[in-house]
Each structure stands twice: as C-alpha cells, then as structure tokens.
Amino acid sequence: MIIITGGAGCIGSCLHQALQARGEQTAIVDSLGNGGKWHNLCKHVPDFLIAPADLDAFLDSRPDVTAVFHLGAVNDTTATDGDMVWRTNVDLSLRLLEWCTHEEARFIYASSAATYGAADRAGMFSDDPAHLHTLRPNSLYGWSKHAFDCLLQRRLAQGDLQGLSWAGLKLFNVYGPNEYHKGAMASLVHAKYVELRAGGPACLFRSDRPDVADGHQARDFIWVGDVVSVMLWLLDHQHVHGLFNCGTGVARTCLDLVDAVCDAAHVARRVEFIDMPAVLRGQYQSYTCADMTRLRTAGYTQAFTPLAQGVERYVRAYLAAADPYL
C-alpha cells in the first residue's frame, strides 16, 4: 500500500490517479470538507480514505505500507496562526518521518520554493544542502517548510534516521486540474482563465519593486503532470536520497502566462494592473527559477512541459471541458 497525505488535493489526486493506473493500492489521508474536493477522487476511488484525525490510529495498526507521499500541509502563504501551521507542517511531518524510518517505508515529501524567501535571481535558488542554513523565508508557510527541511537534515547528521529511504521536493508554481477547491490559492492559470471567461480582463498585481516592471514578475511554472512524473521516478529509484528543486528551470513572466491563457481560450489578450494587497507586500516573490542541476545529476532525464503547451493542455482538456476533473 502507498499512503498519500493531502491525497485529495491537486497534486495528491493526480499522483493518486497515476499510482492506481500502475495497479498500486492506495490510502488517501485528507479532509474532503464541503468545497467539492471529493470530485477529485470520483474517477479513481482510493482503497482507504482516512481523516487526518484518524491517521495515528491507522498507522498504529501497522498497515503493509511500502511508501508514504507526504503532501498534506497548511499551504496558505498568508497564514498567520503559527501554532497551527507548526503542528501541521512540522510536527505531523516528523511523526511520519519517524514512522517510515521504523517501518522501512520510502518517505517522499513536499517542501516548497517559498523556502527561498526574498531570493530574486537565478543563482539564489540552489538546492545544495550546504546552502540550507542561508535561506531566509519571508512567510510563515515558507518558514514551516524550511524548518522541517532543516530538522530532517539535522537528524540525518546525528544518525537518528538509520536506514531511512527518503526524498523531498521543493515545489515551484504548480498548475493543473483538480485545484478548483483551492479558491484564492489556486494557480494563476486557473485564476486568469476564470476572469477571462467572465468577460473581464486578466488582473495582475502591480509590482511592489522599482526594478521590476508591472507584469514582469517571473515565476517557474510547472505542469502538475511533470511533478507527478518526478514523484514516480523517485518512487522507482529508491537509492536516490536528497532534497531537490522541482520546477522547470525556466522563469516566465506573469504577462507570458496571461498571453498563453488568452491564446488557449481563444480570447483577446487583455490585462489590467491592480494594487497588490497589503498582506502580500514584502513577501511576494517577484522571481523564482529552480536550479535543476542536482535532480538531473541524480539521473532524472525527462523533459519538462513548456508553459504555452501546458497552459493549452490545461485550458482545453480540463478548464473548458464539461468535466474538468482528472
């Protein structure tokens, strides 16, 4: 059996679909809530659906688990409840880490590009573990992810995790199907498509930096299918250990993304700039670009989907379809 925490979310449900296609037995740990997240599992029903509050009891039953994909987290970059974020993003992660070590299960977890904080040029996005202590996340969410990265490395150095098979992925800006329940936290592709189909312009934040023009904030946008491919590769290559960036290695501007959405949706290119909310000023990442050297050196060779191609696939096969779910 393979456990996926956060398995009803965008990345988790897409990974779940791919694992089921390979004939794997799956256990999803997630809260479906009232926002329609259950739709993400309609086409591939898990063998087990476990509420987060019941996870400890499930693990205590010592199920025959070969791997845990730990994707569940408080992923709101504007979250302010430090105690809640720590309990979910750090304490839970440590419990799963220790359980996997004891049960000899592969542990693959999601970190985040938010750990890079105010980094704003290509050379500042190295995932070399020797640079980990230099990172300064500028959001509670980013700090919680960084804290777990650091604690894992510390425990490895102390020899506390003997025999652990593990890998972590610093996820950059993921877009793709099954994110519709996320509201304001959905990808920029989804948000701009909704605005355009409603007949309005695509709205982008004005830059809060004098050296970055409006709309020229640049991000490393990665198609969710590429993230799943990396995760499956890590599952199949259990000798590969480490914390790796997971992006495309290419930064594209927000204007590039809007143009791609407009073209895929067959609407005129229309952009309106609006003020950035106060809650985001000072912690908005105006540039991200994954340094993919270490993952490539580890042996991952698959190409990443170019932005225009990924956006076109997302819009035409999902967002514009009668049934937008994977």
Describe the structure concisely.
By secondary structure, this protein is α/β, with parallel strands linked by helices. Helix content is 35%, strand content 16%. It is built from nine helices and 13 strands.
Please characterize this protein's 3D structure.
The chain is of the alpha/beta class. It contains nine helices and 13 strands. The strands form four sheets. It has a seven-stranded parallel sheet, sandwiched between helices. A two-stranded parallel sheet has the order 7-10. A two-stranded parallel ribbon has the order 8-13. Helix 1 (10-21) links the parallel strand 1 and strand 2. Helix 3 (82-103) runs parallel beside helix 4 (140-158). The longest helix has 22 residues, at 82-103. It starts with a strand and ends in a 7-residue tail after the last helix.
